[in-house]
Amino acid sequence: MLIRILVLALLFYLPFKAYCQTRYEQTGWAAWFNNTKLNAKWGLYFDVQMRTYDNWTRIRNLLLRPGINYYIRPNQTATAGYLYTPTFPAPTAANGKTLTEHRIWEQYTISHPVRNGSLSHRFRLEQRFIGRTNETLFAQRFRYFFRDIQPLIPTPNGFKKGPFIALQNELFFNIQNKIKVNGSVFDQNRAYIAAGFRASSKLDIEAGYLNQMIKGADNNTMNNIIQIAVYTRF
């Protein structure tokens, strides 16, 4: 399955490189992902992220994403929520203003054991209200994400503590109003590899490299990102 997904990502990557002018960026992202279980069926989700401009000059985006989890089974979760994300003006913008995007989103996540770790798949649908200079654009987007965590020191009875390697990839597709977004069904791809440490069943800390390919209407972007992330579970 992982090989098929990586091949699919490569099929999008090749035309991205071959036919469009591409600009390159070096940025940093910091993220906190939290899941809080209220009872056997319901819980709360929340993540907050900060993303910098090219060469780490200042904050470009702030993402606040709360949601409500419904636990279908121990390994299957349905979630619905809201996202607020402002994009702050570039340091070089003379009269730039903050542009804000609001989203409603729904997702389904399923996970299963693989070797000594676990593999999760996430399918997310987004209704996007994108703030632009002279209008608010409505569009819908579909995202498929997988994440594989493998402990470096195998432990019996499940991975509860110790160092690990994380591998993930996410594909983004415009499914409504693609002409005004970027003129293409393909929106972007994010490939990521990280090293981390599981301090307990409630806390993971990791740092890694994320490669983000963004399909633009005129020019594409290849973003090389250093990401630091914290995952908590209560």
Give the proportion of residues in helices: under 10%
How does the major sheet shape up? 11 strands, mixed, barrel
Which strands sit side by side, in order, in the main sheet? 1-2-3-4-5-6-7-8-9-10-11
Outline: globular
Q: CATH class, anyone? A: Mainly Beta
Q: Distance N terminus to C terminus?
A: 30 Å
Instruction: Give the CATH H-level superfamily.
Output: monomeric porin ompg
Tell me the radius of gyration: 18 Å
The tally of beta strands, per DSSP, is: 11
Proportion of β residues? over 45%
Low-confidence stretches: none
CATH fold group: Porin
Estimate the mean pLDDT confidence. Answer: 91
| Element order: H for helix, E for strand | HEEEEEEEEHEEE
SS-derived structural category: mainly beta
> Can you name the CATH architecture?
Beta Barrel
InterPro entries: DUF2490 (IPR019619)
Pfam families: DUF2490
Protein name: DUF2490 domain-containing protein
SSE layout and pairings?
Elements: H1 2-19, E1 22-37, E2 42-52, E3 59-73, E4 76-87, E5 99-114, E6 117-131, E7 136-151, E8 162-176, H2 178-181, E9 186-200, E10 203-214, E11 220-233
Parallel strand pairs: 1-11
Antiparallel strand pairs: 1-2, 2-3, 3-4, 4-5, 5-6, 6-7, 7-8, 8-9, 9-10, 10-11
Explain what this protein looks like in three dimensions.
A hairpin with a 4-residue loop joins strand 6 and strand 7. The chain starts with a helix and ends with a strand. With 234 residues, it is mainly β. The protein has one domain: monomeric porin ompg (Porin), CATH 2.40.160.40. It has two helices and eleven strands. It has an eleven-stranded mixed β-barrel. Pfam families: DUF2490. This is DUF2490 domain-containing protein. InterPro entries: DUF2490.
